[in-house]
Automatic annotation (TrEMBL):
Descriptive protein name: histidine kinase
Record bears the keyword Transferase: yes
Keyword Translocase: no
Membrane-crossing residue ranges in chain numbering: 12-32, 194-219
Species assigned in the record: Maribacter aquivivus
Class of enzymatic activity (EC top level): transferase
Catalytic activity: ATP + protein L-histidine = ADP + protein N-phospho-L-histidine
Family matches, as SUPFAM superfamilies: ATPase domain of HSP90 chaperone/DNA topoisomerase II/histidine kinase, Homodimeric domain of signal transducing histidine kinase, PYP-like sensor domain (PAS domain)
Length: 746
């Protein structure tokens, strides 16, 4: 009775209601806290992914700067792309600093990355100043000293490569830290995702108990119960949204995130791992579908992990709990890929984050090849310096120190690096008379970019005095005045110039003597001949009839001799003056020239019965009266050396030929030539005399057989050479001869 009355008591219901409300509030608060914790855990996971993405983005900026600098070094490309990337790198650093503000260890690494960024920015800014001054593959000069500009760029790229390598080490540490945080936060998320439904269930059970204990009271407060159920529904919906958000985060990552649970045998030994989860990024890396992988066996799908050691590390991580790292080459769908794995222990298994580093490896291989090519180019450059007899230098004008190439030392006659090159040490090699020239290199303050050229002498131990030519360009490096450039041994050139000057002076004297001879020949030598001819004519007019026949013969021979002497002098003068003719070239019709010569030699042609045939002769460029003299000499020569009793026959022909068709060996200055031939039926000549007949005073017959001075063909050769052409003769004794002339079309 007491129990029944106690249960039916209003006070009991009030107490039960209060207890129920308290319990309900407690369970609701616990559930609410669980949902908030789950939401916060999801935010932390999202935050970790954002940090990882920013780290990878920043790492790619470092590598991009390195690649751009290498490209600029070898392709002579000039752009501000490096500056843009460095600016973007700074923005990524600011974002990373904000994201890791609550992680002291990561903050220290961010500071280290910021320091590396500042160093790279200094290198890029310096490079921009230097590149703006001069193209990278050129040599620049200042104050007479020369620098190897490619060497500066190479060293700068080496420094940038080292800074990038340091950034990659820091990146790997930061990613490892974030992966560890990711695993721990996922474990917390898993725990929270388990507790939250339990809390919701507890709330539901509590509500049901309250309903059973105080149906009447709860029925009266039906609206309050509905409100509580509504709150539970909202919390469950938030939980589902959080789960979807995490799945979206996993999908957005380029890394393959997989969770495994061990498969144990009867002795509790790990024989395999089962895929419990993997992100969809695995489809891009391996080509396998995500749904086909989840739930499958690791060794069945990827047996190569036994050979490359990844499986052993996964077991070690599960047993010891220590984070493991592994990198190896995998072949997926016929394509080789480098995969870097980070393995961490989780609550019921292990989590592996796989990063496809194929592009980075290829970039490293390309960088290695570029370094090898650069080393080869440096070797070639050194050999080129040695062959060309030049040396390169970088001379700092503020303190006189210098960096010089090995061949610079060799030019001085010493072994490379046998002494430290400075203004004072190098001045000991300079000739005392040229010290002032050398000192002006350091004392002269040039405007930026101005060039200097010096020629001076040095003493060497082995070869005595050498003449050097120094070309330098003034630049500023790190706000220091610098002269960069080359020095060349020009001793042999100076000696050749000196010999050339001496030869010129001798030639000048010889020409003056020849001019004096021409004056004498044109006036003094011809004057006695004119008097001899005049007095012989008077003697013949006054007493030829009473003069004995023998005396008349003597006077006839004197007349012939004086005539030949005068003709010889005139021909010599004509021969010596050909090179001094500066008349302008004109368009000349060869047909008209030959027709004019026929008129002038008409009496000779008539007396000898000569026939001259020609047709379609071209127009050429030349000096008119010299071309007439050339043709006259050749036609007269053919008539003079005709066969006895046979009427001379001369055939003149011409055609246009390409220089490659000409077999004769002479300097061909144009693509096309006119081949002009003068063929006759005269006495000809022996083939071995084909070149001799063009020499001065060379006669194949005595003056009693054929008249002439032996200069006519020499004059022809001079005229043809004056017109940048070539002449040669073809003949056979008693079978006529042919004179072939090549004259440029233009």
């Amino acid at each position: 009775m007491k129990l029944k009355s106690l249960i039916g008591s209003t006070k009991t219901y009030i107490i039960l209601l209060v207890l129920a409300i308290a319990l309900l509030l407690y369970t609701v608060s616990v559930g609410y806290k669980q949902v908030n914790r789950l939401h916060k855990t999801g935010d932390l996971v999202s935050h970790t992914f954002e940090v990882q993405r920013t780290i990878v983005e920043l790492s790619s900026k470092f590598l991009e700067v390195e690649a751009i600098q290498l490209k600029k070094l070898f392709e002579a490309e000039e752009s501000n792309l490096s500056t843009i990337v460095v600016t973007e790198m700074g923005q990524s650093l600011d974002r990373l600093n904000t994201l890791t503000i609550d992680n002291d260890a990561q903050q220290e690494r961010v500071k280290a990355l910021q320091l590396l960024h500042n160093k790279i920015k200094v290198e890029i800014d310096t490079a921009t100043i230097v590149d703006a001054t001069k193209a990278p593959d050129s040599l620049e000069v200042k104050d007479s000293i020369v620098i190897n500009y490619t060497g500066l760029r190479y060293k700068r790229n080496e420094r940038i490569s080292k800074l990038v390598a340091e950034s990659q080490v820091i990146k790997d540490r930061m990613l490892a830290e974030e992966n560890y945080l990711m695993v721990s936060r996922k474990e917390e998320y898993t725990s929270q995702s388990f507790l939250t439904p339990m809390s919701s269930l507890l709330v539901a059970l509590t509500a049901l108990g309250i309903f059973l204990i105080g149906f009447i009271s709860i029925y009266k407060q039906k609206g309050e119960i509905n409100e509580v159920n509504s709150q539970v529904f909202v919390q469950n919906k938030k939980l589902q949204e959080t789960e979807e958000f995490l799945k979206g985060v996993y999908k957005s990552s380029n890394n393959v995130i997989s969770h495994f649970e061990p498969i144990l045998d009867t002795q509790k030994n790990i024989t395999d791992f089962q895929f419990r989860y993997t992100s969809n990024a695995i489809e891009k890396v391996t080509g396998s579908e995500q749904d086909d992988i989840i739930g499958g066996s690791l060794l069945e799908m990827y047996p190569m992990v036994l050979e490359n050691g990844l499986f052993v590390l996964m077991k070690e991580c599960y047993v010891s709990g220590n984070t493991q790292e592994h990198e190896s080459v995998y072949t997926f769908e016929g394509e080789k890929k480098y995969i870097f794995n980070t393995i961490v222990k989780s609550a019921n298994g292990i989590t592996n984050t796989a990063w496809d580093t194929t592009k980075i490896k290829k970039a490293e291989e390309e960088l290695k090849k570029l370094n090898e090519d650069l080393s080869l180019q440096n070797t070639i450059f050194k050999e080129a310096e040695n062959v060309a007899g030049v040396g390169s230098f970088i001379w700092y004008l503020d303190d006189g120190t210098a960096t010089v190439s090995d061949n610079f030392y060799r030019i001085l006659g010493v072994e490379p690096n046998s002494f430290e090159v400075t203004f004072s040490s190098y001045k000991e090699f300079v000739h005392p008379e040229d010290v002032a020239i050398f000192e002006s290199i350091g004392a002269n303050i040039e405007e930026k970019g101005a060039s200097t050229v010096f020629a001076y002498r040095v003493f060497t131990k082995a070869k005595g005095i050498k003449h050097l030519d120094l070309k330098g360009k003034y630049v500023e490096i790190d706000n220091r005045p610098v002269s960069v450039g080359i020095v060349q041994d020009i001793t042999s050139r100076v000696e050749k110039d000196r010999a050339l000057i001496e030869s010129y002076e001798k030639l000048k004297i010889s020409n003056e003597e020849l001019e004096s001879f021409n004056r004498v020949a044109s006036h003094d030598l011809q004057e006695p001949l004119r008097k001899i001819q005049m007095f012989i004519s008077r003697i013949e007019d006054d007493g030829e009839k009473g003069m004995p026949v023998g005396i008349q013969n003597y006077f006839g021979k004197i007349k012939d001799g004086t005539f030949r002497m005068r003709e010889l002098i005139q021909n010599l003068l004509s021969y010596s003056r050909i090179d001094k003719i500066n008349s302008k070239f004109e368009n000349i019709s060869l047909s008209e020239v030959v027709g004019k010569i026929e008129d002038e030699l008409s009496q000779l042609i008539k007396d000898t019965g000569t026939s001259i045939s020609y047709d379609n002769l071209p127009d050429i460029q030349g000096i008119p009266f010299k071309i007439e003299q050339l043709c006259t000499n050749l036609i007269s020569n053919s008539i003079k050396y005709g066969k006895s009793g046979v009427a001379p026959k001369i055939i003149i022909s011409a055609k246009k030929v390409r220089n490659s068709e000409i077999v004769e060996n002479f300097s061909k200055t144009t693509e096309y030539y006119y081949k002009i031939s003068f063929a006759d039926n005269g006495i000809g000549f022996e083939p071995e005399f084909a070149s001799n007949i063009f020499e001065v005073f060379q006669r194949l017959h005595s003056k009693n057989e054929y008249s002439g001075t032996g200069i006519g063909l020499s004059i022809c050769k001079k005229i043809v050479e004056k017109h940048n052409g070539y002449i040669h003769a073809i003949g056979k004794k008693d079978q006529g001869s042919t004179f072939v002339i090549y004259l440029p079309v233009n």
